[in-house]
Amino acid sequence: MTAALVLDAGLALLVLVMAVWTVAAGPAFSAVVGFVTFGLLLSLVWVRLAAVDVALTEAAIGSGVTGALLIAASARLRPTESRTAAERPGPVLHVAAGALAVLVSAGLAALVLLPAGSAPTLAPAAAVHLPELDVGNAVTAVLLAYRSLDTLLEKVVLLLALVGVWSLAPDRFWGGAPVLRTDTPPGRELTLLARLLPPVGIVVGIYILWVGAKAPGGAFQGAAILAAMWLLVMIAGLRATPEIGRRRLRLVLVAGPAVFLVVGFAGFALPNGFLSYPEGFAKPLIIVIEVVLTLSIAAILGLLVAGPPEREKRP
Amino acid sequence: MSGATLYGLCSAALVGLGLFGAIVHPQPLRKLLAFNLLGGGVFLQFGVIARRGAAAGMGGDPVPQAMVITGIVVAFSATALAVALLLRLYEVSGSATLSTETPMSSDGKGGGR
Q: Which residues contact A283 (CB under 8 A, 6 or more apart)?
């Protein structure tokens, strides 16, 4: 019991140290590296909180894919750093911001420490219908059955973000391909890695998607791994980044939300409302939706990291 | 004191740190990082609430956990959009500042481009 508590205290301390580093580090690149480390430590905290699904998502998306995006951005923005750093606000704002931060933290800490009586929970309600759905993982059941509307809207948010990113492209590059910049030209090590890792990564990604029905895992986590493999191959230059005007690519992007919507509207005709699954078909429908969603999410995540097109469309 | 309480206090500190960084840092990329720390703290607080709601043989309440998964993905899309905006700003203006004053340009890039 006490050993576990010591482990928890150490982990919490490490998380805080990395967070302080992220805020206080000098160069932006160091701060980003600190943030990625913070994310990986945070995913360990999620394991300690018995939320392995969240841990996988945090490690893959919150730390991994976000980290790739921010590292690339910090490298490109390096020339601006010294100038913007000179705009640091005065001591008055520092003190005011510090006071505000302490106040907010103290309020939240008080909420944590106050005896709240019995904590509210929806776990029993979520457990009741699991046998009907034939889904063993309650988190997957919440994501794709009880609260599937949230998941559908989230897919739409991802698509909207991608449209937003693409819309920042200059006119002459519209329909062209994004460019993944690296500090140095890809060396032999990276090429080797990009040949060795993807076969393993793709199998792991598909496994995590499949096992998500009854154990921690699912569409998001699997998709993030697939997206990482795709990015690795593109950064190593083994495959070109896709032109954003291609119809096949766009079909993959909208397939997930589209299938979700079709199943949703079919719910009006067959069972009893939007996004309700007909009896006995819940499990197969959930799997179909998850598979198509995984492909779409993987493509969207990869393209979000790749950014707006920066190369002219090939004739 | 239980592990969940410890992590709850940790999440409270994270929110404060993120808030402080987002206000104080002049560089937009650093504000973005700090904002993501703040978000991580909020998610973690949610995780502590989920852990306290452990019941029905589950280690935690699955509903907040699912919401946090959704939240992490949405936070990523917002971050990607913000990064794209920032890089475009740099491309167009040659600087990456949020300051409304025209920067005192020594290299002639600030202001009227």
A: A133, A134, A135, A213
pLDDT, one tens digit per residue, over A113-159 is: 886 667 777 777 777 777 777 777 777 777 777 777 888 888 889 99
* Count of beta carbons in the 10 Å neighbourhood of residue A207: 13
> Chain B partners of A126 at a C-beta cutoff of 8 Å?
56, 58, 61-63
Contact of B15 with A108, CB cutoff 8 Å: yes
Q: Does A58 touch chain B (CB under 8 A)?
A: yes
A284–chain B nearest CA distance, Å: 21
- The phi, psi pair for A176, rounded to 5°, reads -85, -165
* Contact by Cβ (8 Å): B43, B14: no
Calpha distance A151→A113 (Å, rounded):
32
Mutate to test the interface with A, among B31, B73, B79 (most CBs of A within 10 A): B73
Its pTM stands at: 0.87
Q: What is the Cα–Cα distance from A15 to B15, expressed in whole angstroms?
A: 12
How many angstroms separate the CA atoms of A150 and B42, rounded? 19
* Two structure tokens written together for A176: 């062209």
- Residue labelled with tokens 């997957």: A140
pLDDT band at residue B110 under the 50/70/90 scheme: very low
* Pair of tokens at residue B109: 């890039």
Q: What is d(CA B10, CA A34) in angstroms, rounded to the nearest whole number?
A: 17
Q: Which domains does chain B have, with CATH numbers?
A: 3-93 (1.10.287.3510)
Q: What are phi and psi of A309, to 5 degrees?
A: -60, 140
In whole angstroms, give the CA distance from residue B43 to residue B50. Answer: 10
Dist CA A244 CA A159 (whole Å): 13
Which ipTM was obtained for this model? 0.88
Does A192 lie at the interface with B, CB-CB under 8 angstroms? no
What is the DSSP-derived secondary structure letter of residue B61?
Answer: -
Residue A250 scores a pLDDT above 80: yes
DSSP assignment of B40-79: HHHHHHHHHHHHHT--TT-SS-HHHHHHHHHHHHHHHHHH
B76–A112 C-beta distance less than 8 A? no
For Cα atoms A285, A287, A288, give the angle at the middle one, nearest 5 degrees.
65
Task: Please answer yes or no on whether A80 and B77 come within 8 Å at the CB atom.
Answer: no
* φ and ψ of A178, to 5 deg: -70, 160
